[in-house]
Amino acid sequence: MLPDGLFQCKKLQCLPLGKNSLMNLSPHVGKLSNLTHLELTGNCLETLPPELEGYQSLKQSGLIVEENLLNTLPLPMYLDKC
User: For residue 38, what are the β-bridge partners?
Assistant: First the structure.
């Protein structure tokens, strides 16, 4: 579990959370509006919070989710809206 204070860091751009045995990611990650790099390698995540879908900056290789238990990724996150 991540500390609540982390999600108050509004200027945070890079969040390396790899190999932390995370089973879920708080929906409060949506408060980190300047986030451009989110590394989640080697955790136990089965899903990603829908709050990540609006992050245009993460769409361009800023989201790393290797070695997790994800079956799918949120489709809107990887398709540009027409």
Answer: 15, 63
